[in-house]
Design a protein that fits this description.
The protein is α+β, with helices and mostly antiparallel strands. The protein folds into two domains: about 70 residues; about 150 residues, no CATH class. The chain has five helices and nine strands; from the N terminus they run αβαββββαβββαβα. The protein has a five-stranded mixed beta barrel. A two-stranded antiparallel ribbon has the order 7-8. β4 and β5 form a beta hairpin. It is elongated. It starts with 7 loop residues before the first helix and ends in a 6-residue tail after the last helix. It is found in: Cell membrane; Membrane. This is SURF1-like protein. Belongs to the SURF1 family. Keywords: Cell membrane, Membrane, Transmembrane, Transmembrane helix.
Length: about 270
């Protein structure tokens, strides 16, 4: 008695399964390759930033070049700028640092060469927020020219995670340069800001509550230069899934070949 041939529906199901397997394999392999390329890009970015941080502060980009300042070429670039503070235009934006929770003090600097750049002067603890306007060291007489050294940072539009900036209410969850400039009536503002101070590899700061009351605020140099790089994990995940699909295809193929070898192919009519 000859074995019965597979019904047409069974053969169609196997064909669809094979096509789906091929599509999944191609998708997982492509995603793995994309993550591999992203990993190379991220490692190159980290190397560029590390080289920038070791360089001496350079002059702030010329005002005509501001529209071309982007993260790839300028993020974390040490720079220096000279001008006069506009302390009456200061805003406080929420911050979480190694000193604890508090606020960044963001003050415009009217540049000697024209234009304005926002400067993150540093961190103050939460306890100082309500009376900062009176305690700000810049409050008072007209300011003398100052020179600021720090790192170029890109604007942080919109707000924080699930928290939108509310300029009308004075609530800032991110350092959104364009929104701050509009809310404070500033013109000719650079599309980036400066984090004052250049972080070093020294010991971690102590908690804010342990600092001396005589310590000057705001505290600069708390920029965290850190890049999330999990691309290798993603590469292994996607290529692992592709290998699983390929392995499943091999098992199904071997099973079909064994069935045919054990029972023989249906005779030709």
């Amino acid at each position: 008695m000859q074995p019965q041939a597979r019904p047409p529906r069974s053969r169609a199901a196997l064909t669809l399964l094979a096509l789906a397997g091929c599509a999944l394999f191609a998708l997982f392999a492509a995603l793995g390759w994309w993550q591999a390329e992203r990993r190379v890009w991220k490692l190159q970015l980290i190397e560029r930033v590390e080289q920038r941080l070791r360089a001496a502060p350079a002059a702030l980009p010329a005002r005509a070049d501001w529209p071309h300042v982007d993260a790839a070429r300028y993020e974390y670039q040490p720079v220096r700028a000279q001008g006069r503070w506009l302390p009456g235009k200061t805003v406080l934006t929420q911050a979480t640092t190694e000193l604890g929770a508090g606020w960044w003090v963001l003050t415009p600097l009217l540049l000697d060469g024209g234009g304005t750049v926002l400067v993150n002067r540093g961190f103050i603890p939460d306890a100082l927020r309500t009376r900062w306007r009176e305690q700000d060291p810049l409050a008072g007489p007209a300011q003398a020219p100052v020179q600021v050294a720090g790192l170029i940072r890109m604007s942080e539009p919109g707000g924080g995670f699930l928290r939108r900036n509310a300029p009308g209410e004075g609530r800032w969850h991110s350092r959104d340069v364009a929104a701050v400039a509009q809310a404070q009536g500033l013109a000719g503002v650079a599309p980036f800001f400066i984090d004052a101070g250049i972080p070093d590899a020294g010991p971690a700061p102590v908690p804010a509550q342990a600092l001396s009351q005589a310590r000057a605020w705001p505290h600069p140099g708390l920029t965290v230069v850190r890049f999330h790089n999990s691309h290798l994990v993603y590469v292994l995940t996607w290529w692992g899934l592709a290998a699983m699909v390929a392995g499943a295809a091999v098992l199904v193929t071997r099973h079909e070949l064994r069935l045919r070898a054990g029972h023989g192919a249906p005779p030709n009519p």
